[in-house]
Design brief:
Shape: flat
Structural class: mainly alpha
Radius of gyration: 19 Å
Strand content: under 5%
Oligomer: single chain
Number of strands: 0
Length: about 130
């Protein structure tokens, strides 16, 4: 395992933390609020990095599954999360439509979800 792969997720998290802090400042948040937003994301990243070698879960969350069993667990967890998100999007869409609200956001998110899923099916089918 290379040093780069061990630091990839924390590096992305730090960049994301900076972007979130900048967005907070753009929305007229105080510097304290922006620093807190950065600290939350950075703390998560540093915790993952510190626990990567001691915890299988931290290693998996860092994108470094320890073995095939954990890769399988990760795939099943991602599948469950995708199913839950799909149901939540449909329920939110219907709730917005029935209450007279704007369901456009949920429709667009559902469309992105469907295109990503169908694109994944086509991609992985063509590669197997």
């Amino acid at each position: 395992m290379t040093t780069w792969s061990r630091w990839f997720v924390p590096a992305v998290a730090f960049v994301l933390g900076v972007l979130i802090a900048a967005a907070e400042m753009e929305q007229d948040a105080s510097p304290w609020q922006a620093a807190l937003a950065f600290a939350i994301v950075a703390g998560y990243a540093l915790t993952l990095r510190a626990l990567q070698s001691r915890s299988d879960v931290a290693s998996l969350l860092s994108g470094l599954p320890p073995d095939e069993r954990w890769s399988s667990i990760n795939l099943r967890a991602l599948s469950l999360a995708a199913h839950v998100i799909a149901v939540v999007l449909v329920v939110a869409f219907l709730g917005a439509r029935f209450s007279g609200g704007d369901a456009d956001t949920y429709a667009r998110l559902g469309a992105v979800f469907a295109v990503a899923y169908l694109g994944g099916l086509v991609w992985y089918r063509s590669r197997s």
